[in-house]
Amino acid sequence: MPPIPRVEAYATALLEVSRAEGHLGDIQDEMFRFARTFEGSDELRSALTDPSLPTDRRVAVVEDILGGKALQTSAALASFIVAAGRASDLPAIIDRFVELAAAEQRRAVAEVRSAIELTPEQTERLRQSLNRATGKDVEVKVVVDPSVLGGIMARVGDLVIDGSVRHRLEQLREQI
């Protein structure tokens, strides 16, 4: 499904700014993590998408979250999206930005959900396995998701590899 035109426009703008700043990889990673935080927090989503909250207050929330923990450019880009009234599109914009950045670097992005943080060695082994499975140079983005219970779930574009305990339990339940 093609991206929504405004999502594409914002994602392209993020790519251009990140490239111009010379920190494409870092900004891509920080924005990806911010989008996952946004998706995972009802309170944050509510605050950033509430039209009754003044724009400067919504931007201050973003700066409180990212300030000092991310590059100034990442915080400014996230604030820009919120100030433009596009907070509800934030995950879609950032996901498309991550795809565009990966494509520019001739890479694919794998969103991996794991119940626990993966060690650098585990992430590297997983990256190598996904490289072989997809035939692409894969960049692994890990999201800690306790609902996975154990194992991992990886998505590279349309390809989903679900090796999670939750998925296996669902399969067993269906067999019984």
Query: What number is the mean pLDDT?
Result: 86
Main beta sheet: strand number and arrangement?
4 strands, mixed
Low-pLDDT ranges = none
Distance between the termini: 36 Å
Structural class: alpha+beta
Tell me the radius of gyration.
17 Å
Across the major sheet, the strand order is: 2-1-3-4
What is the percent of helical residues? 55-70%
What is the number of helices?
A: 8
Tell me what the structure shows:
Helix content is 61%, strand content 13%. It is α+β, with helices and mostly antiparallel strands and 176 residues long. The chain has a 4-stranded mixed β-sheet with strand order 2-1-3-4, with helices on both faces. Strand 1, helix 7 and strand 2 form a beta-alpha-beta unit. Helix 2 (24-40) runs antiparallel to helix 6 and helix 3 (42-49) packs antiparallel against helix 4 (55-66). The longest helix is centred in the N-terminal third of the chain and has 17 residues, at 5-21. It is globular and about 55 Å long. The termini are far apart.
Question: How do the strands and helices of this protein lay out in sequence?
Answer:
Layout: H1 5-21, H2 24-40, H3 42-49, H4 55-66, H5 72-83, H6 90-104, E1 108-114, H7 120-134, E2 138-144, E3 152-156, E4 159-162, H8 165-175
Parallel strand pairs: 1-2
Antiparallel strand pairs: 1-3, 3-4
Helix pairs in contact: 1-2, 1-5, 1-6, 2-6, 3-4, 4-5
Concise account of the structure shown:
The chain is of the alpha+beta class. 61% of the residues lie in helices and 13% in strands.
Core attributes:
four-stranded mixed sheet, 176 residues, alpha+beta
